Structure formats: structure tokens, C-alpha cells
Amino acid sequence: MPRRWKRTILVGLGVPNVVAGVWAVVSPSGWYDDFPGTAPRVVSALPPFNEHLASDTGAGLLATGVVMLLAGAWLRRDAVLVATVGYLAFSVPHAVFHLRHPADAMTTVQNVGNAVVLWLGVALAGAVLVAEGLAGNRSRGSE
Fold it and tell me: What's this model's pTM, rounded to 2 decimal places?
């Protein structure tokens, strides 16, 4: 995978997590009520609000986003591997949850759209991880 694509994917997955994470840490109730800022409101579609949970979720999103941005900036193999594994450790269970628990407050189309966006993030991070793994196998094979 070209470095430019890797960087684009890592930054593209990192920025939304940083934005959502900062929002949830700074204003847990605002994040709960309004995320993602347009309809449908995906967090408040699965009530009830819990300030502690919203703030902690924001901190996790922020941490995940920061490591993805650093990996995108550095493009060092070890950083990319750690960041994508960490991203997937969060995003796979998150995507599975939303697939298994569609929100009653959202339409079927909105629930499907939410699931598609979440699984797209999983697929993109997975593609970077596989590319890094294949690149590592090629370099070890030439030693």
C-alpha cells in the first residue's frame, strides 16, 4: 500500500475520533445529545445519558484518534501496527454492538448507514494492518 494511502487512512480515521473525543470530554451532555452534529443523533438514540460513561468514552475516542494521527504522521511500521491494532480493538466491538443493537430512535436506513460507516472504518484499518503485515513479511524474507 502506498505511503500516501496509508497516511490518508490513518489520519482520516484519527481525526473524527479526536473531534468526537474532545467534544465528549469537554461537553458529555452536548456530545450525547447532538453527536454527530447532524441527524440522526446516534448516541442519544440509545438512552439513557450517563455523564461518566460519555466522558470516559470520549477519552477512549480521543486516545484512539491521537495514536492514529501519530502513526499517520510518523508512518513507522511499529507505530502503524500498534495504532491499527488499538483502533481495531475499539472499533470492532463498537461496530458489532451497533450491528446487534439497532437504535429504536433511528430508522432502518439510519441504522444501516451507521453500521456501514463503522464497518468501513474497520475495513480501512484492517487493510492498513494487512499491508503492514505483508510489508514486514517481505522484508523478513529478503534477510
Answer: 0.90
Grid cell at residue 64: 484512539
* Inter-residue contact 22 to 66 (CB < 8 Å): no
Q: Is 83 helix (H, G, I), strand (E, B) or coil?
A: helix
Any residues with CB less than 8 A from the CB of 61 and at least 6 apart, and which? 17, 18, 20, 21, 24, 90
DSSP 47: P
Count how many Cα atoms sit within 13 Å of the Cα of residue 14 in the half-sphere of its side chain: 20
Query: What is the share, in percent, of the chain residues with pLDDT greater than 70?
Result: 95
**Mean per-residue pLDDT for 110-133?**
96
Residues whose CB falls within 8 Å of the CB of residue 43, separated by 6 or more in sequence, listed in order: 31, 32, 33, 35, 54
- Whether the pLDDT of residue 142 is over 90: the answer is no
Q: Is the CB of residue 125 less than 8 Å from the CB of residue 95?
A: no
